[in-house]
């Protein structure tokens, strides 16, 4: 097993390199960039999401003196809207963002820095990328962790009961509810919850913004916990809808496959009760695929599933940060998020495989590879 883990860890290196290389090459050909954004700000044409970011572009404030004169040369002509700006100023912008160096040199420097988890500073925020990610991390962890736990806590018992009562009225009605829940997009359900329960048109039971109320730090510890979960009710409910439906059907189908196998019939013929057969024999085999998928489900909710929910409920997490960074061409934040997400994704895939062997020791990936 140690040899298998070592091989998987070593394979992560070329995988990460490939992901970063492809993304870096795409960025080189993508229109726009930080230099173009500064130029657009100077021309008063910046209408992107950067308008929501305060304190952006440290060198822009002194750029007014560069707007009037100068003849555009090859460096300034590469950028849309740069005509009429001082070429020296354009070169200073390129140096500020590192674009005065060849692409291959910038790429290898980025890899060396990222190998040491040195992600530099954001282009348009006066803060290091690592600090920025740490600042947004609690929101994403809260959404991902509690959504995954809630969906599993509901879907596993419900899926087992649906499998035991396959074809019954209970199974048919709950299947209809599950399918409807799966078909409704989470963001639409979030809007419905706001209209009904957050002061939209009916009741104002739950708050609409943030993870905590004003004065949270002054509350007793038990009130802080209650306030925290009070703010999470609506976004977690909206996010759990689709995941809960998927996990329920997965659990049901997994149990149905196991219940129909020969060893279950043998256990019943030995006189074991239905409960002993279900939880003593079927449960471990049926739950293998469900439990082993927990790390991946958490990472999926943690990184990818919360962008719209964060926006709707004004929660400033990693999903919103990644989106705004892409729109604003804040490349250090974009590549840092990509690197961290990819690395964690690969590690979670390894953890998922190891979870299979922990749940069922009969599985041996090392023997399979041999």
From TrEMBL:
The chain crosses the membrane at residues 9-30, 139-160, 172-198, 228-251, 286-313, 333-352. One of its GO terms (biological process) is microcin transport. Pfam families: BPD_transp_1. The keyword Transmembrane applies. GO terms for cellular component: plasma membrane. Gene3D superfamilies: MetI-like (1.10.3720.10). Residues 137-352 form the ABC transmembrane type-1 domain. Residues 54-71 have a biased composition (Gly residues). Its main location: membrane. Keywords: Cell inner membrane, Cell membrane, Membrane, Transmembrane, Transmembrane helix, Transport. It is a multi-pass membrane protein. It is found in: Cell inner membrane; Cell membrane. Residues 50-79 are annotated as: Disordered. Signal peptide: none annotated. It comes from the Bacteria. PANTHER family: INNER MEMBRANE ABC TRANSPORTER, INNER MEMBRANE ABC TRANSPORTER PERMEASE PROTEIN YEJB. Belongs to the binding-protein-dependent transport system permease family. This is Microcin ABC transporter permease. It comes from Microvirga vignae.
């Amino acid at each position: 097993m140690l040899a298998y883990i070592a091989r998987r860890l070593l394979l992560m290196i070329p995988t990460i390199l490939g992901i970063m290389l492809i993304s870096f090459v795409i960025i080189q050909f993508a229109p726009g960039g930080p230099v173009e954004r500064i130029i657009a700000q100077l021309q008063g044409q910046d209408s992107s999401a950067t308008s929501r970011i305060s304190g952006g572009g440290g060198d822009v404030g002194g750029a007014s003196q560069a707007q009037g004169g100068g003849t555009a040369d090859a460096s300034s002509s590469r950028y849309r809207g740069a005509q009429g700006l001082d070429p020296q100023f354009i070169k200073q912008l390129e140096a500020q963002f590192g674009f005065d160096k060849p692409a291959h040199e910038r790429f290898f420097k980025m890899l060396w820095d990222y190998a040491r988890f040195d992600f530099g500073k954001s282009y348009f925020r006066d803060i290091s990328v690592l600090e920025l990610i740490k600042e947004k991390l609690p929101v994403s962890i809260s959404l991902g962790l509690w959504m995954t736990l809630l969906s599993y806590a509901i879907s596993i018992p419900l899926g087992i009961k649906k499998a035991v009562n396959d074809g019954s009225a209970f199974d048919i009605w709950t299947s209809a509810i599950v399918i409807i829940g799966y078909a409704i997009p989470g963001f639409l359900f979030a809007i419905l919850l706001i209209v009904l329960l957050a002061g939209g048109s009916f009741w104002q039971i739950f708050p609409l913004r943030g993870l905590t109320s004003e004065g949270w730090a002054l509350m007793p510890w038990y009130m802080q916990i209650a306030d925290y979960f009070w703010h999470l009710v609506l976004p977690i409910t909206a996010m759990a809808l689709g995941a809960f439906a998927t996990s329920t059907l997965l659990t049901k189908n997994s149990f149905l496959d196991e219940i129909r196998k020969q060893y279950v019939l043998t256990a019943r013929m030995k006189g074991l009760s239905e409960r002993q057969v279900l939880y003593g024999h079927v449960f471990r085999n049926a739950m293998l695929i469900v439990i082993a998928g927990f790390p991946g489900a958490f990472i999926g909710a943690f990184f990818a599933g919360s962008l719209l929910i964060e926006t709707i409920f004004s929660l400033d997490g990693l999903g919103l940060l990644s989106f705004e960074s892409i729109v604003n061409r804040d490349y250090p934040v974009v590549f840092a998020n990509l690197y961290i997400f990819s690395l964690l994704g690969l590690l979670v895939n390894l953890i998922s495989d190891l979870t299979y062997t922990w749940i069922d020791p009969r599985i041996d990936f090392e023997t399979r590879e041999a």
